[in-house]
Amino acid sequence: MTNQEVDFGILTAKEIRDVLKSKAHCLRAGFPADHIIIKTLNEFRDHYLGRVGLPTYLSQMLGEVGKAPMQSCTLYAENGQPIQARLNGAHNQPVQRFIARNFSVDRLPFKVEVALASKPDQIEVRYL
Predict the structure, then answer these.
(1) Distances (CA, A) of 36 to 41, 42, 43, 92, 122
(2) Paired residues of 94 in beta bridges
(3) Which of 12, 69, 72, 122 could bond 92 through an S-S bridge, CB–CB 3.0 to 4.6 Å?
(4) Where are the chain's structural domains?
(5) Which of 97, 98, 96 shows the shortest CA–CA distance to 88?
(6) Rounded distance, CA 28 to CA 8, Å?
(7) Long-range contacts made by residues 51-58, C-beta under 8 angstroms, separation at least 24?
(8) Which contiguous run of DSSP H or E holds residue 48?
């Protein structure tokens, strides 16, 4: 096997969303956060995020659910634990804006669950 240079820049937004879903599956299957698979998937995500910037990244990863008010969202850490978000009157602030203002690039929530008013029985999930 030869030592090849990895091209982290070839992935599109859709492919990065797939990378994040794969990471979620690996974590759910029991891979530890410091496993080479998780680290490699993080490298793809980090390179992409650095290339497009946080506002564009959040917009692409969240899509339309990024406009949902924070009061209908739950944020989760990589270990699956809910993140206690201090809304401080920002209950109607869009989740995308809330995340951009309250989290640094290296401390983003891993998963966002959104209960949409138009589909109260359905939870939309996005990964960051």
Answers:
(1) 9, 10, 10, 39, 34
(2) 69
(3) 69
(4) 8-127
(5) 98
(6) 24
(7) 51/9, 52/13, 54/100, 54/105, 55/100, 57/128, 58/96, 58/99, 58/100, 58/128
(8) helix 36-52
Rounded to whole angstroms, how far apart are CA atoms 71 and 69? 5
For tokens 């995500």, what's the residue? 45
- List 75's β-bridge partners, or say none: 112
What's the token pair of residue 90?
A: 């920002």
Cα separation of 126 and 113, whole Å?
Answer: 7
What phi and psi, each to the nearest 5 degrees, are found at residue 23? -60, -45
pTM exceeds 0.85: yes
pLDDT, tens digit, 9 for 90 and up, residues 99-120 = 999 999 999 999 999 997 777 7
